[in-house]
Every structure is written in structure tokens, then in C-alpha cells.
Design a protein that fits this description.
Layout: E1 10-19, E2 37-44, E3 50-52, H1 58-61, H2 74-89, E4 98-102, H3 110-115, E5 119-123, H4 127-135, E6 140-141, H5 147-157, E7 160-166, H6 175-185, E8 186-197, H7 199-205, E9 217-218, H8 221-230, E10 233-241, E11 247-254, H9 262-274, H10 279-305, E12 310-313, H11 317-326, E13 336-337, E14 355-356, E15 368-371, H12 377-383, H13 385-389, E16 393-396, E17 402-403
Parallel strand pairs: 4-5, 4-7, 5-6, 7-8, 12-13, 12-15, 13-14, 15-16
Antiparallel strand pairs: 1-2, 2-3, 3-9, 8-11, 10-11, 16-17
The structure holds S-adenosyl-L-homocysteine, thymidine-5'-diphosphate and zinc ion (ZN).
Length: 404
């Protein structure tokens, strides 16, 4: 394996063993062997991009039955509404603006753009969620974004003022094709805005469950700046975001086209002083993750041995890494509650834990609940206040194993 950005040499620093496709929830009774791959992470010795060492074919992850819904969190719905409003007031305020979103999923962001009557296009390869976007009045094409897709859009619709991607660019290993596509589609002074989990936050919080098949790249300002430079773009803006456990929203523009925000240099300096790309930091992260695994397994085993009742909350893609890396199955977590229709009635990939609807949580409440959707802790704890009031305790494992 070599770097998917610059072909440089990769140094491995963490290995999570064999893992299934994180969103491939299994139909009970389906005895076909699940696909698996080695989940390991490395850093490029040349451009510092942190990335997976093995790639899962994209059609195995993103297809008609891809279950993840962006609209599953009210905090995220508000987050995307605010972003749409801000784009409409700035980059999309000229005559006949046009915005393209990569990975628009069920249309949570673009519906606000469509409602404002602004020209837009969602590019979304997962058919089921793309249909949901279309049902909200969003114009969507069922395709993987890559250079050829970008050229087709440019020919049909003309140049884009904004290309936007949330929690999608980090899913795409074929970065050269993406950036050539952005170059083909973007207006000369347009912007490419994307937001993804931030490497520095993952390292600081030891949020190792951000590492799974779909998350191929782990961006930081330094690696994104270098990636942009290699393709004739410049990193002109960064904004830290509190969502999904800590993200950064990056803005790229063609080299020299925009003034560069001082926030970029500030974040680069912060990354340098925190040593986010030092091997010692990355190896320290890996050691901390092993401790988290041992403590979580010890806690859950102890609870089982004393006969306590336990459930999980949020059948996240992230939980696949936790469950399979820690060897946690239904004997330790008998079921997981989740609001996503396409996950309910199925089993978690690799670990075989039944997924039930949120109504199963209260019937009766377990004594302990592992919050696999810890990135939505505030929203879920508020919604499930009665669980704590009934004496229930949340189990968290990021940034460390603890009861709340
Ligand atoms: N933007 C949404 C969805 C993120 S999930 C949000 O932030 O909530 C990632 C999405 O990217 C999935 O819907 C997946 O189907 C889509 N995706 C994966 N590869 C893609 C590609 N090459 N081009 C466009 N979308 C892609
Ligand atoms: P999320 O953490 O957003 O992403 P990923 O799957 O990529 O790790 O997933 C949140 C999951 O939690 C999703 O399956 C929906 C579920 N969920 C609930 O069941 N109830 C809730 O109140 C919220 C906010 C999420
Ligand atoms: Zn590289």
C-alpha cells in the first residue's frame, strides 16, 4: 500500500484486526459468510495524510440498501440548515448560483437549498437514500462522484459556485479523480467546502471508533493543505465544528483566487505544537486504545457476571469497530436500540447483536446502556432522560471508559 494522495510510503501505527463492512447489518438466518478486511491505519511519510491500509470496494459499502440517514439527529438537521442558510447568504447570493453536494444522502442539507429555489444537484450513489432526497424535492443523480461524473455535470449544468461535502470526502480513497473532478466542475473563483472528523480530535479523545471501512482518510489542516497544493488548490479556510465528536470544515479555492484566512495558520501551528503527525503521538493513541478496549471488556464482563441488565444505544457504523475489536457480542450487549428503519430487526455486522427500535429501550429499562452514538450524547441523553431518572447509567468509552 502507498499513499492515496501522493504515493508516498505509509507507516502503520494501529491495527484493529479483521472487520466487517460497518453498515452491512445482517438479516437473521442469513448464513452467508460476511465479507471482512484488515482495518489498520498508517501515516504517509511524505505528505502526513493518515489513512487506512486496506480499501473496501466502494460498491460493498454504498449501494441501494445503504442504511445511514443524515436526518436521524435533530442536532445534525439544524447543523445542515445553518450551513445552507450561510451559503445562501454568501457564496450563493450572486445571479443564478449553482451548488453541488457530494454524498447528499437523504437530502438533509440540500432540501433547504431546494426550498430557497436555488439551482443544486446532489451526487449520491446509495439508491435508497438518494430516493429519499428526491422525495424532498432535491435534484439528485445516483452516481459516485469522480472525474467523469464531474465532467458530465459541468457539460449539462455549467460550472458550480460551491461544491460541498459533509462526512463524504474522507470516505473516498480515489482522491486524485475527485480533485480533478472538482477542478473540472468548479467556477474559477468557486469554493470546495468539506467537513470531516478531525484527526487532532480523534487523537485527543482516543475516539478510535471513527476508524472503520467508510472512513478512509483522517484529515488535518497540514495534510489537507498539502493535498490541495498538489492539485492546484489552496486551503483558504478552516473552521472547527463540534459535531460528530469534533470535525473541521475546510475551504479550498484555486491557488491565488481567494484570500487565505488567518485561521489556517493558527490551526497549522496548533497541529505542530500538539505533534498530531508525530509517530510518538500516533503510537501513544494506539496504546491508549488498547487500554480502552481492556477496560470496556472488563466492565461489561463484570456486569454480566453479576447479572446486571445491559443494552446498547445507537447501532452506529462506529460501533462495528468497537464490537469487533473488543470481541463484544450479544452475551455482553444483548441488543442495541436505534431509530434507523433499515437497521431494525437486523444483526450488527460481525458481532451479531440484534438491533431494535428505540421503544425497546424502555421495556423495561436496562440498568446500563452503552452509548455507541456518543457523538449525539447531549441529544440522546435529553431524549432518554427517564432512563437516568429510573436509575439507569450510561456507559461511555470516549475519551475514556466511564459511567454517567
Ligand atoms: N452528507 C451526509 C451523509 C454522509 S454519509 C451527512 O453528513 O450526514 C456518506 C455518504 O457519501 C453516503 O450517503 C454515501 O453513499 C456517499 N458517498 C460515498 N462515496 C461517494 C462518492 N464517490 N460520491 C458521492 N457520494 C458518495
Ligand atoms: P452516527 O453517529 O451519526 O454515525 P455512524 O453510523 O456513521 O457512526 O449514527 C447515529 C446512529 O444512532 C444512527 O444509526 C441513528 C442512531 N440514533 C438513534 O437511534 N437515536 C437518536 O436520537 C440519534 C440522534 C441517533
Ligand atoms: Zn502522501
Amino acid at each position: 500500500m502507498s499513499c492515496r494522495v501522493c504515493s508516498g510510503r505509509l507507516t502503520e501505527f494501529a491495527d484493529f484486526g479483521r472487520q466487517p463492512v460497518s453498515d452491512a447489518f445482517v438479516t437473521p438466518g442469513d448464513t452467508r459468510e460476511e465479507f471482512s478486511f484488515r482495518l489498520a491505519v498508517g501515516i504517509c511519510e511524505t505528505c502526513t495524510m493518515v489513512q487506512l491500509l486496506e480499501e473496501v470496494p466502494r460498491e460493498r459499502m454504498f449501494h441501494e440498501a445503504y442504511p445511514y440517514l443524515s436526518s436521524g439527529s435533530s442536532v445534525m438537521r439544524e447543523h445542515f440548515q445553518a450551513l445552507a442558510k450561510s451559503l445562501l447568504a454568501t457564496e450563493l447570493s450572486g445571479p443564478d448560483p449553482f451548488v453541488v453536494e457530494l454524498g447528499c444522502n437523504d437530502g438533509t442539507m440540500l432540501r433547504s437549498i431546494a426550498e430557497a429555489g436555488v439551482r443544486h444537484l446532489g451526487v449520491e450513489p446509495s439508491g435508497g437514500v438518494a430516493d429519499l432526497a428526491a422525495s424532498k424535492g432535491v435534484r439528485v443523480v445516483k452516481d459516485f462522484f469522480e472525474e467523469a461524473t464531474a465532467r458530465r455535470i459541468r457539460d449539462a449544468d455549467g460550472p458550480a459556485d460551491v461544491i460541498y461535502a459533509a462526512n463524504t470526502l474522507c470516505h473516498i480513497p480515489y482522491m486524485e479523480s475527485i480533485l480533478s473532478g472538482v477542478d473540472a466542475l468548479l467556477r474559477p473563483d468557486g469554493v470546495f467546502v468539506f467537513e470531516d472528523p478531525y484527526l487532532a480530535d480523534i487523537l485527543e479523545r482516543a475516539s478510535f471508533d471513527q476508524i472503520y471501512d467508510e472512513h478512509f482518510f483522517f484529515f488535518a489542516a497540514g495534510s489537507v493543505q498539502e493535498m490541495a497544493r498538489r492539485s492546484g488548490f489552496e486551503l483558504v479556510g478552516v473552521e472547527r465544528l463540534p459535531v460528530h465528536g469534533g470535525e473541521v470544515r475546510y475551504t479550498l479555492a484555486r491557488a491565488g483566487a481567494r484570500r487565505r484566512s488567518p485561521a489556517v495558520d493558527e490551526l497549522l501551528a496548533a497541529e505542530a505544537s500538539a505533534g498530531v503527525t508525530d509517530l510518538a503521538t500516533l503510537r501513544g493513541f494506539a496504546a491508549r486504545v488498547e487500554r480502552t478496549r481492556d477496560e470496556l471488556v472488563e466492565l461489561l464482563t463484570g456486569l454480566r457476571d453479576k447479572g446486571a441488565t445491559v443494552a446498547g444505544y445507537g447501532a452506529t457504523a462506529k460501533s462495528a469497530t468497537v464490537l469487533n475489536y473488543c470481541g463484544i457480542g450479544p452475551e455482553l450487549v444483548p441488543f442495541i436500540c436505534d431509530t434507523t428503519p433499515a437497521k431494525q430487526g437486523r444483526l450488527t455486522p460481525g458481532s451479531g447483536i440484534p438491533v431494535r427500535g428505540p421503544e425497546a429501550f424502555a421495556g423495561p429499562y436496562p440498568e446500563y446502556a452503552v452509548l455507541f452514538a456518543w457523538n449525539h450524547a447531549e441529544e440522546i441523553m435529553a431524549k432518554e432522560r427517564a432512563f437516568r431518572e429510573a436509575g439507569g447509567r450510561w456507559i461511555l468509552y470516549v475519551p475514556e471508559v466511564r459511567l454517567v
